[in-house]
Amino acid sequence: MQVLYRSTRGTDKAYTASEAILKGLSEDGGLFVPDRIPKLDLPLSALAGMTYQETAYEVMRRFLTDFTAEELKQCIENAYDEKFDTPKIAPLVEKNGTFYLELFHGATIAFKDMALSILPHLLTTAAKKNQVKNEIVILTATSGDTGKAAMAGFADVPGTRIIVFYPKNGVSPIQEKQMVTQKGKNTYVVGITGNFDDAQTGVKKMFNDKELAAQLDAAGFQFSSANSINIGRLVPQVVYYVYAYGKLLAEGKIHEGEKINVVVPTGNFGNILAAYYAKLMGLPLGKFICASNENKVLYDFFSTGCYDRNRAFMLTNSPSMDILISSNLERLIYRIAGNDPEKNRRLMEGLAKDGKYEITDEMKQNLQEFYGNYATEEETAGAIRRLYEETGYVMDTHTAVAEAVYEKYRQETKDETKTVIASTASPFKFTRSVMNSIDGKYDALSDFELVDQLSRIAGVRVPKAIEEIRTAPVLHDRVIAAEEMPQAVKEILGV
C-alpha cells in the first residue's frame, strides 16, 4: 500500500515520496508527514542478521513506496560504502552498561552523514522519476554539521547546486574549517552575522517566496532542501535506531521484544523524532529522553507544554544544539494534535507572531513517552571527564549533554531499562572543548595540536576528515547580514 505525504499545515493535496523529497517544504510552510506510519512487519529476530544496508532497505522501502526496489537499493549502495570508516556504518559501543550508537563514522564525522550520504541519491532519482528539467538548488541552513555533510554529499552531483548558510560566530573552528575548505564546482558557503535561527528563518522565507520561485524557474532553477525538514532526510534517520536494536539482539544484550530507552541530544528535534517514528513502526522503544543544552527550549516545552523562544540565545560548547526554533517539533505537534492541520497551523502562527505557543492538556497526555532535561556547560564537561577517567572512552560535547541528562533521568526515575545514547559527533570536531573538559592544561595548544593529543589519549586514529583540512585552502569567505540572504542566492545563481 502506497504511503503518501501531506503538509502539517493543511493543503489537501497528497504527494508521493519522490515529490515530497523534491519539494522539501510544502508551499504553505508546513512540513511533509506520511499519511500513515508503515509497520515494520517482519520478525524482530530477522534484524539481528542484517547489515546496515539491508536494514536501510527494509525501513526505507516501507516509507518511500514510489521508489522501485532497484532504485532504492542503488541509492543505499551508493550512500553506505567506503565513505564510512567501518563496514558496520554505525557501531554500537558499550561503556559502563550504556550503549553508545556511534553515528560519526562518515565523511564529515557527524550524524548528519547518516542521512546526507543518501539524500543526493534519493533526490536525483526523484528528479528523474518526475521528469524535472530545472537544476535543483539545495538551500540549507546549518548549525555546524548539516552544511558540511550536505556539501560532501552533493559536491559535483550533476543537475544540482548547494548553498549553505551558517552563523559566522556560532560553530566550532573545526566545523568552520570543514565548510570553508569544501571543494566542488557546485558548492557555496555563506557566513551570516546572526545565529542559526536567523539562518534557518531566512531559508524558510526563501522557500515560501513565490516571486523568488518564479524568478528562479524562469532561469531554470528550483529549490529543494537538505535540512531535516526534508522527509528524504528524516526517513534514513529512522534506520539507525532499527539497526541498533538488531545489533543488541545479535549480541545477546536484549531478548526479542524487550524495550529499550533512547537518549538523543537535540536542538532541531529531527533525530529524536526519527526514533519516535521507529517506535510507531513497531520497534520496542520505551522512553525518549530528550537532552538539551542551556538553550533549553525543548526541556521547558516538555516540562510545561509551552514552547517559548522568547529568551536569551546562548552560545555553548555544544554549538550544533544552539537552537531556539526546533523545526522538526512541528511534526510531533501535528501528530499529538490528532493529525489536525488547522490546529497545528494556529500554533505555528502563534510561534511566528508571538514567539510561543501552548499545547492543550489533551495533547500533553500524548507526550508521556518523552522525558526532557538539560545539561549546563559544567555538567557537559563533567560528563566527558568522568567517562574518560572511568573507561578511557572520549565523547564529544553533544553526546556528553545526552550522557549528563541520562544520568539525571536515572537518578530521578530509577529506571534501569537498557539504553542507547545517540552519539552524534566525533570528539575530533570539538577538540578544544573536549580536551579542556578532560584537563585545562590542554588549552595552551593550537587546534591541530589538540587533535594529535586527543588521538593519543583516546587511542583513536585521527579521522580522515580532520587530516584533510589541516592544510586545505579556504575556498569560501563570503559573510553577509541575514537579511541579505535572498540577494546572495541570486548573485550565486546569476539570476
Major β-sheet, in short?
6 strands, mixed
Number of helices: 22
Estimated structural class = alpha/beta
Residues in helices, as a percent range: 40-55%
Stretches with pLDDT under 50, minimum 5 residues: none
Rounded to the nearest angstrom, the distance between the terminal CA atoms is 42 Å
Shape by Cα distribution? globular
Mean pLDDT score, rounded? 95
Strand order of the largest sheet: 3-4-14-9-10-13
Number of strands: 15
Assign the CATH topology of one domain. Rossmann fold
Strand content: 5-15%
CATH architectural designation of one domain:
3-Layer(aba) Sandwich
Instruction: Please tell me how large the radius of gyration is.
Output: 21 Å
The level-1 CATH class of one domain: Alpha Beta
